[in-house]
Amino acid sequence: MPAPIRLRELIRTIRTARTQAEEREMIQKECAAIRSSFREEDNTYRCRNVAKLLYMHMLGYPAHFGQLECLKLIASQKFTDKRIGYLGAMLLLDERQDVHLLMTNCIKNDLNHSTQYVQGLALCTLGCMGSAEMCRDLAGEVEKLLKTSNSYLRKKAALCAVHVIRKVPELMEIEKNHGVLHTSVVLITEMCERSPDMLTHFRKLVPQLVRILKNLIMSGYSPEHDVSGISDPFLQVRILRLLRILGKGDDDSSEAMNDILAQVATNTETSKNVGNAILYETVLTIMDIKSESGLRVLAINILGRFLLNNDKNIRYVALTSLLKTVQTDHNAVQRHRSTIVDCLKDLDVSIKRRAMELSFALVNGNNIRGMMKELLYFLDSCDPEFKADCASGVFLAAEKFAPSKRWHIDTIMRVLTTAGSYVRDDCVPNLIQLITNSSEMHAYTVQRLYKALLDDISQQPLVQVSSWCMGEYGDLLLSGQCEEEEPIQVSEDEVLDVLEGVLISNLSSPVTRGYALTAIMKLSTRFSSVNRIKRVVSIYGSSIDVELQQRAVEYNALFKKYDHMRAALLERMPVMEKTAANGPTEIVQTNGEAEPSVLDVKHVPSAPQPSVQANDLLDLLSGNDMVPVIPTTVPTKPASAGGELLDLLGDLSLTGVPASAPVPVSISQPPFLLDGISSQPLFNDAAAGIPPMTAYNKNGLKIDFTFERSNSNPNVAVITIHASNSTEADMTDFVFQAAVPKTFQLQLLSPSSNVVPALNKGTITQVVKVLNPQKQQLRMRIKLTYNHRGSSVQDLAEVNNFPTQSWQ
């Protein structure tokens, strides 16, 4: 059989291929020849064939059939064969394949070989792909080589020991060559990350590490370790990383490394990427340990200089790091606000997104006007993928820091006109509430929204808010009493033309049409064109949209049967107070996916309702087998997106009834799931056997659940939440929210307070009632929101470990 071609000739031949198909044909032909050679047990050219096979593997072609040939080369006595064999093993084998265990004895023999280079090959292979079993069997040989006087072997043995520790952490038991130092630092780092005892043990090495790092930055030129004018940057980075681990949460260690970190930060050259890598690691170390305030400012200034770098990766790293530190060092980051805002214009989408997130984090009451101007300009020109997050951020910032109500309204309207299709569902009710509560701005707002509706009816949230305002304040639009800007002259027919245009537009969603129809109905008490309104309403009594048809039929009934009540029912909405604590008490059914989702806090009119809140569930439980007749009052909630436009004649909510509500109308409602159960004392002493549980324990906040069973209905579990705070500062504006799967029903009663006292000096309690008719295992997702030490905190948690007695 002729001698196979050499690797160099094969590479040259493959490179002459003009097409992928031609290259594939060459590879297949050569693979066939190699397979034939393997079958004939050709020991002469086995090494050459495996080398060619590895090259094909690097090109992406299958080479698994050469695995056993690699093992044969490893068993050979020739160094050239062993070198290719071990290289093939590292490339073609991994710990998931049992074949690799056949190498264990060969590696053990080679670790005790008389030639250091053969020992080095065995160490490299074990450190690259050794499994836990192999590492456990060969750990003794690696430990012996760690103590050898040969620095070449000690370096490789230390690297191998890192892999052994990662695979078998229980083998942890632990020199001035830079390579040995580097591998030793890596090994110590791995041990400290995995064992708290090792972390405590190695903290005594901080002075030695500081001394080594100082020698590195103060030493002169060393050609052996110099990289772009910096002495061994790889070792510097590794030492800084280890210092960060050792100094975290320890005052003495942090104090010992403050000076050297300042020297590294001020003496490292920033013109080359090598220096930037060291500075970045220095910044991370300063931010993680208990460093001095001046040192933290120095670290943030380094990140500020990174923002001016031409390298996109460095700018991205700087923005990400600043985003992590902005809560703790807000004022220092504020100094670089203009540079951060400039990054919004970057072409790179990753940098643009990080800059947007950091810009919103920097917004406060002092810079709200300037920052919003930049962010609104960004919203106008950014890609669609950014618009939703940007609009949401503008809403939150405006709500928190708005200098005036007019500015707040103008800002929200600007967002709706430029990115209305991307805003969250709750923006419509929130803006409606803001407008309702700004009584002095009603004429100005309705005029601005009317003009916006004339220009564009494609932005559905804008159309919904405009329709609502025109229905509420249409009389102000006609009066022309706007003081903030020049009033416009509008007739009743023009206003109705606009709203009818919304009703018939193909761009309008069913929800938007519901807003428009309700607005037209409300105008029947504000305009004199009642006959025209009656015609429009009657037309939609036969609409194919069931929601719209129902509204039109009920509005027609209002005209015909209850015309004497129409003025009272359609009067202007009262001022609405936003409930910051857990929202109103109401039964909420999750009717979406099977997975629970966190419930949004719904906004309802403020009214005296403590007794109603405490007894809603009891009211629903009372009654008999007949369909109940529930006295309902005129609803006072604004329409909201998502099909929740309120039926003016049939609101089922028992909460939020204003003190000055019109005469109630009794309406028969369909039976509720809980109807038909007699009213009895709510709690059952038999539930005392249900053990309490801890649902959440993080950052000093602890949430405990205790359980009781409803006496009237064993399917209702009554959960009492106890929130305590072990930190040294109060947690204010505390809000607890919960959601359950759609097979359950959930009711949240009002909490005892919204402040969780510090140092466990008191608790907040809140009652949650859960109806579980199918006796399924209880699952709950909770959302916690509160302010702590000047920062807003929000967290989600899954609670799946409820006691069996609580749901069976």
Automatic annotation (TrEMBL):
Main location per the UniProt record: membrane
Keyword annotations from UniProtKB, A to Z: Cytoplasmic vesicle, Golgi apparatus, Membrane, Protein transport, Transport
Gene Ontology terms: cellular component: AP-1 adaptor complex
GO biological process: intracellular protein transport; vesicle-mediated transport
Domain GAE: residue ranges: 688-803
SUPFAM superfamilies: ARM repeat, Clathrin adaptor appendage domain
Topology in the lipid bilayer: Peripheral membrane protein
InterPro entries according to UniProt: Adaptor_Complx_Large_Subunit, AP1_complex_gsu, ARM-like, ARM-type_fold, Clathrin/coatomer_adapt-like_N, Clathrin_a/b/g-adaptin_app_Ig, Clathrin_app_Ig-like_sf, GAE_dom
One of the Pfam families matching this protein, by short name: Adaptin_N
Signal peptide boundaries: none
Subcellular location: Cytoplasmic vesicle membrane; Endomembrane system; Golgi apparatus
Similarity-based family: Belongs to the adaptor complexes large subunit family.
Protein name per its UniProtKB record: AP-1 complex subunit gamma
Biological source species: Scleropages formosus (Asian bonytongue)
Record gene name: AP1G1
